[in-house]
Amino acid sequence: MGLMMNKVPPPPKHNRYIFLKIKLFLTAVSCGKINVRKLWNVFVCSWAYFFKTKISATSPLVLSLELGNECNAGCLFCRDAKGRIYNINPQHPYIDSISKGRMPVDMALDIIGQLKDDVLIAVLYTNGEPLLYKGLTELVRFSTEHKVMTMISTNGLLLTEDNTRAFLNAGIDLIKIQLGGMTQDVYSVQIRYGDVEKLKNNIRMLARLKKELKSHTVILIDWITYNYNRHQIPLIRQFCRECGLMLSFRQGNPRGGLEDKETPLPTETLPMSCDWLWKGMQVNFDGEVLQCCEGVIWSGCKPYAVWKTGASQLKDIWNGPAAQATRELMKTKGRRSMSICKQCQRTGIAFKW
Ligand code: SF4
Question: Ligand 1 center to residue 155 CA distance, Å?
Answer without folding.
Answer: 25
